[in-house]
Design goal:
single chain; 109 residues; alpha/beta; Transcription Regulator spoIIAA; 35% helix; globular; STAS_dom; Anti-sigma_ant; phosphoprotein; Anti-sigma factor antagonist
């Protein structure tokens, strides 16, 4: 499956709306887009994962890179609307303690 990426502004926040799967094939596309948005100093990015039904460790790596980039230029990003199976990856790895996640846990598809 592919990953659909849409970005738009809501006030001062850039929303990155994702749909599909984040894996070794789609992660490079996501990484390029996310890091490009976060490289702007003081950027505020909200990553909406509501329609992401699968993510592997490659996806986690993208968000770790995003966190490092954001910290370097005083930007921030928040993960929102994670499905239960995707949130579980962040929880198991402890990344939910270092990344900002505003979660409305949704059941798997």
């Amino acid at each position: 499956m592919n990953l659909h990426i849409e970005d738009f502004k809501e006030g001062q926040v850039t929303v990155l709306k994702l749909a599909g799967e984040i894996d070794a094939y789609t992660a490079p596309q996501l990484k390029e887009k996310l890091l490009g948005l976060l490289r702007e100093e003081n950027a505020d990015v909200q990553v909406d994962l509501e329609k992401v039904n699968y993510m592997d460790s490659t996806g986690l790596g993208v968000f770790i890179s995003g966190l490092k980039t954001a910290n370097e230029v005083n930007s921030s990003f928040t993960l929102v609307n994670l499905q239960e199976n995707v949130y579980r990856l962040f929880n198991i790895t402890g990344l939910n303690d270092v990344m900002k996640i505003e979660n409305t846990i949704r059941g798997g598809m």
